[in-house]
Design goal:
Elements lengths: L7 E8 L15 E21 L2 E12 L10 E6 L5 E3 L2 E10 L4 E8 L1
Antiparallel strand pairs: 1-2, 1-4, 2-3, 3-7, 4-5, 4-6, 6-7
């Protein structure tokens, strides 16, 4: 069962801002906490890309969540911790693309922010 694998906790935030400003542009995002979800986050691969004098590290990060978890595209994860609250994955992560529904869990691709 997948529940034994979900040993981490994700503090999930969702953008609550809606509407547009006086020039028709979206208003600034306002991320508010919506809860803490059981999860398991891992890196599938990382690679270095060099373009002339610039170098960047690309890391593919994925996460598992239980079925029925309130996680959606464009949500952000403020922190990934263990059960005791120790930070395991530092920095903010954003859910990229639609959350995939598997037979026993939800799976999401994550992108590091910042």
């Amino acid at each position: 069962m997948i529940s034994g694998r979900l040993t981490m906790r994700a503090a999930v935030e969702r953008n609550q801002a809606s509407g547009t400003d006086a020039w028709g542009n979206p208003v600034a995002p306002d991320f508010q906490a919506i809860g803490t979800l059981n999860c398991f986050v891992w890196s599938t691969s990382s690679r270095e890309i060099t373009d002339g004098e610039k170098t960047a590290m690309i890391e593919d990060i994925r996460a598992l969540f239980p079925l029925g978890a309130d996680i959606a595209e464009d949500d952000e994860i403020a922190a990934v911790t263990d059960r005791r609250g120790t930070v395991i994955v530092p920095g903010r992560l954003k859910v990229e693309g639609p959350v995939q529904h598997k037979h026993s869990h939800l799976e999401a691709a994550l992108k590091r922010i910042g």
